[in-house]
Design brief:
The protein is α+β, with helices and mostly antiparallel strands. It is built from six helices and 15 strands. A hairpin with an 8-residue loop joins β14 and β15. The radius of gyration is 26 Å and the shape is flat.
C-alpha cells in the first residue's frame, strides 16, 4: 500500500524570480553618452587652454596664441545577450519566463556597459591625427594605494589633483567598492553630523562628500590586495554607441516549433 505522502500535492510558483544582482548600469548616467556612432572608428577633436595676452604699447602687433589641438579615437564594441525558450520549456515550467528573462538580459547589458567604462577609465587612450598614438593615464593623475585602505588623505589628494587641473567642480564622481565603504564609515569626518550634513551611518552608504558623488560598484578591478577606485568628471569621459539599449522578443522561424528568442544589445 502506498503512503499518504504519495498523494501530497506539489505546487509551483507561477512567477520567475531573479536572484539578487546589479540592476542595469550604475555608471552610464555619470559619463557623456553619444548615440550617433557609425563607421569603424570615430574621432573626437579637443582643444586645450590658452593664455590671454596683454596690450602694453600703442599700435602693438597682435601675438597669436600657439595651437593646442588634440584628437582621440573611439572604436566600437558590441555587447549582446540572448536566450531561447522552447514551447516545451514554458509547458514544463508552468509559467511564461520571457519578461523576467528580458530583465535579466538588460541587467547583463548594463553591467557590461559599466565594465567598458571602468576599463576605459584605467586604460590607454588612442590619440593623434590617425589615432595610433597610445596615451596612458599619467602617474600625476593617480593616488598611491599604500596599505591603509581608503582614507581621508587619499580623497583629499584626488580632490587636489582635480582642483589643480581646473576640473569643473560639478558632476564629479567617485566609484568605490564595498570594502571602501567600510573604510569610509570609520572616518570621523564622514560619520560626524557636525562635519558632514549626510547621516552616513544612518543611510549605510555615501551620497556626496568633498565635492564627489559616490557610487558603489562591485565591478572595480582588484590587483592583489589593491582595489582601484575611480574619480572623474562627467565631461571628461565619453561612451559612444550606435544607439541605446535595444531589446526584443521574437519567434525564431528557422527552428522547430518556432521557439521564442529573447534578445538585448547595445
Amino acid at each position: 500500500m502506498g503512503q499518504i505522502t504519495t498523494a501530497f500535492k506539489k505546487e509551483f510558483a507561477d512567477t520567475l524570480y531573479l536572484l539578487a544582482q546589479q540592476s542595469g548600469s550604475k555608471l552610464l548616467s555619470t559619463v557623456r553618452h553619444e548615440t550617433d556612432f557609425s563607421g569603424e572608428a570615430k574621432f573626437y577633436n579637443q582643444y586645450g587652454s590658452d593664455t590671454a595676452k596683454e596690450k602694453n604699447t600703442r599700435h602693438q602687433d597682435i601675438e597669436y596664441s600657439a595651437d593646442d589641438y588634440s584628437r582621440r579615437m573611439v572604436t566600437p564594441k558590441l555587447a549582446y545577450w540572448s536566450k531561447l525558450i522552447d514551447t516545451e520549456d514554458e509547458i514544463s515550467m508552468g509559467l511564461d519566463p520571457k519578461s523576467a528573462l528580458m530583465t535579466a538580459g538588460t541587467n547583463a547589458i548594463g553591467r557590461q556597459i559599466d565594465d567598458y567604462i571602468i576599463t576605459a577609465l584605467r586604460g590607454t587612450a588612442m590619440t593623434g591625427t590617425d589615432g595610433t598614438t597610445e596615451t596612458a593615464l599619467g602617474s600625476g593623475q593617480k593616488v598611491a594605494a599604500a596599505a591603509a585602505g581608503l582614507t581621508l588623505s587619499k580623497i583629499l589628494d584626488a580632490q587636489e589633483i582635480m582642483n589643480s587641473a581646473d576640473v569643473p567642480e560639478g558632476e564629479r564622481y567617485w566609484i568605490y567598492g564595498p570594502k571602501q565603504l567600510k573604510d569610509l564609515l570609520k572616518i570621523t569626518e564622514i560619520t560626524s553630523i557636525d562635519l558632514n550634513s549626510q547621516k552616513a551611518l544612518v543611510a549605510g552608504n555615501m551620497a556626496a562628500f568633498l565635492g564627489f558623488n559616490w557610487i558603489m560598484s562591485t565591478r572595480l578591478v582588484k590587483s592583489s590586495t589593491t582595489r582601484y577606485n575611480l574619480a572623474y568628471n562627467r565631461m571628461g569621459i565619453l561612451l559612444a554607441s550606435a544607439g541605446g539599449i535595444t531589446a526584443s522578443i521574437d519567434k525564431v522561424i528557422t527552428k522547430v516549433r518556432q521557439p521564442w528568442q529573447v534578445y538585448a544589445d547595445i
